[in-house]
Amino acid sequence: MRALPFLLLALIAISAATPAAAQRFSGNYPVCLQRWEWGGANYISCQYNSWEQCQATAAGQSAMCLLNPYVQQRPPEPVRAPRPRY
After folding, report:
1. Confidence class of residue 9 from pLDDT cuts 50, 70 and 90?
2. What DSSP state is assigned to residue 41?
3. Domain of 27, in residue numbers
4. pTM, two decimal places
5. Closest to 33 (Cα-Cα) out of 49, 53, 59, 54
């Protein structure tokens, strides 16, 4: 009988916990903007095609631009040897 309040308290504590929010990086854009908000919160938005585009958005804010570590690189074009003329 003494364990019932502790079991009930443990059940409430487990059900009240919220899952951690994951930050998603988009692999389609090579430049990300990291912005800090009041209270210490920050978020990362990967939606910029160029460094200059990101810098223009970050100007005047508590933000900085980053290279996207998860950008999907295109494979390089194969180098073809010139055809011999006959």
Report:
1. confident
2. -
3. 21-71
4. 0.56
5. 54
